[in-house]
Amino acid sequence: MRKILHIDMDAFYASVEQRDDPTLRGKPVVVAWRGSRSVVCAASYEARKFGVRSAMPAVRAERLCPDAIFVPPDFTRYKAVSRQVREIFLRHTDLVEPLSLDEAYLDVTAPKIASPSATATAEAIRAQIREETALTASAGVAPNKFLAKIASDWNKPDGLFVIKPSQVEAFLEPLAVSRIPGVGKVMEKKLADLGIDTVGQLRGFAREELEARFGSFGGRLHARARGIDEREVEPNQPVQSISAEDTFERDLLLEELTPAILRIAEKAWAATRKTERVGHTVVLKLKTAQFRILTRSFTPDAPPTSLQEFTAIALALRDRVDLPASTRYRLVGVGLSGFREADESAGQHGLFAFEAPPDQA
Q: Looking at domain 169-225, does it have CATH number 1.10.150.20?
């Protein structure tokens, strides 16, 4: 039986800003550049009360919270704090799987420092983070990654939640299916159409039926509904790709995709800012109404260094789709791949003059 922790720093970027500038404490802080093409990197809990969330367009955040204080992100500083936190994790276990600058899975089944329980280890880590960084973190303790991630969000901010093996079934029974990773708005509606709103209701469906309706994801739904997740904590797994995608309520023509590409590119770009590695290849994914999947990619001479560059390439890739103009699309995704360590890309500095990518597969 594994003992897994999911540690998640609370409103990380915004909390670092409030820690370093006492005048920001207790105020609604939004970490983002101002402008119509900017996206929120993080929001303090004071700003979240107004509905401001990460990956949200900055102009919308400003409408929701007119008194918000906008602070431009300082990723060098955030990465330095992230390294401090990582060093604390490694005191307790070598099995640390970072997900981003502000969260990680830890396997503490056999901790390096003697501890009476996984819960005690989580408490020790949280105390050390508070003492050494003056920041807070929330933790989830559970038998697997799926449950630990849900648990870490249960008592945020600055909280701890434990799901013991004997409690898994009772905990999952009333849980909304939207809490299962991968269940977005569209999938939530499809499940609701089947009369499935909770994990307990999902449990009543056989694996075969779920797979027939949702393919391999149906199998994952069946397993998660039973609290099953056999994935191991994998240390030193570098980020290879980051993307975001969305399925539309109605199928759209290619020429109608611009607003969706802009929105999804903002979300994907915000996610790429949470890793220390640098992505080089922009990828556009489309799925037609007939479920045909197309991808287009382009690797510029230097990696994109701004949302504007990233979005411009994504839009240019859309123009390389050569299906009939009457083709309709049900999904679009935008992402970055070809990630390398930052020092490998050090020679590729400065903004490049963007040109439409050539017609390459």
A: yes
Homologous superfamily of 1-163: Reverse transcriptase/Diguanylate cyclase domain (3.30.70.270)
Contact 283/295 with Cβ under 8 angstroms? Answer: yes
CA-CA distance, 283 to 245, in Å (whole number)? Answer: 11
- Sorted by where each begins, the domain ranges of the chain are 1-163, 169-225, 241-345
Give the tokens for residue 56. 């949200």
CB 114 within 8 A of CB 120: no
Global pTM value: 0.71
Calpha distance 77→194 (Å, rounded): 47
DSSP state of 340: B
Strand partners, 9: 137
What are the residues whose beta carbons fall under 8 Å from the beta carbon of 248, sequence distance 6 or more?
260, 329, 330, 331, 332
**Residue tagged 């509606």 (tokens):** 189
Query: Which residue matches tokens 């590729």?
Result: 348
Which numeric CATH code is attached to 241-345? Answer: 3.30.1490.100
Extract the tokens encoding 351. Answer: 């903004």
Give residues with Cβ within 8 angstroms of 150, minimum separation 6.
140, 142, 163, 175, 179
Spatial separation of the C-alpha atoms in residues 352 and 148, rounded to whole Å: 42
Topology alike, domains 1-163 and 169-225: no
Rounded Cα distance between 112 and 276, Å, is 27
Can you list the residues of the chain whose pLDDT is less than 70? 37, 343-361
**Cα 322 to Cα 138, 253, 254, 319, distances in angstroms:** 48, 13, 10, 8
**Active-site positions?**
103
**pLDDT tens per residue, range 179-229:** 988 888 888 999 999 999 999 999 999 999 999 988 888 999 999 999 999
